[in-house]
Amino acid sequence: MTTSQTKRCEHCNVLYTYHPSTYGFKPEYNDSRYCQDCDKVIGEALATVPVKFKKKFVPTSDYTREEIISAQEKRCEKLPIHRIMMPLFDLTEPTNQQHNFCEMMKDPISGQRIYYSVTWWSKKPDEVEVCKEIWWDIINDCAAKYQYTPLKN
């Protein structure tokens, strides 16, 4: 099933059909802000501009597994639903499951709320990997100098 919305292009103001859910159907040019013609022109213009930064999870010691899990439990305690993440299974040892938690928490350095993840295997519960999501400089292959992202008004 796919859904669609009638939208007005932010550039040329023509009415067009946007498909936010594209299960089994993926139009070549499908943008929530621009019609197919404008989206195509924008895509062609940006094709020559290399992507310079990306989001990446890197190991950190900012928080512990217990602090991340506790923060998620506190945030979800009044919610009638919980996010379910399918665990990975070790194909050589089927009872060995990978546990994952992801929570948005305050970064002690920047003060911004960013995503932290914690991962461990059930057979090795003491081998815990805690990571945080940062901006990564693709060109210099390092953490970006500025991690701040301005909030939208």
Describe this structure in words.
With 153 residues, this protein is of the alpha+beta class. The chain folds into two domains: 3-46, no CATH class; 53-143, no CATH class. Helices cover 15% and strands 35% of the residues. It has helices spanning 36-46, 65-76, and strands at residues 3-8, 15-21, 53-59, 98-106, 113-121, 124-137, 142-143. The longest helix is centred in the middle third of the chain and has 12 residues, at 65-76. The protein is extended and about 55 Å long. The mean pLDDT is 87.
Task: Write a short abstract of this structure.
The protein is built from two helices and seven strands, in the order ββαβαββββ.
Question: So how many helices?
Answer: 2
Low-confidence residue ranges:
none
Count of DSSP strands: 7
Average pLDDT for all residues: 87
Order of helices and strands: EEHEHEEEE
The main β sheet shows up as: 5 strands, antiparallel
Structural class: alpha+beta
Strand proportion, as a percent range, falls in: 35-45%
Helix content: 10-25%
Shape, principal axes of CA atoms: extended
Supply the number of structural domains.
2
Radius of gyration: 21 Å
Itemize the secondary structure elements and their pairings.
Blueprint: E1 3-8, E2 15-21, H1 36-46, E3 53-59, H2 65-76, E4 98-106, E5 113-121, E6 124-137, E7 142-143
Antiparallel strand pairs: 1-2, 3-6, 4-5, 5-6, 6-7
Observed structural traits:
153 residues; 2 domains; 5-stranded antiparallel β-sheet; two-stranded antiparallel ribbon; extended
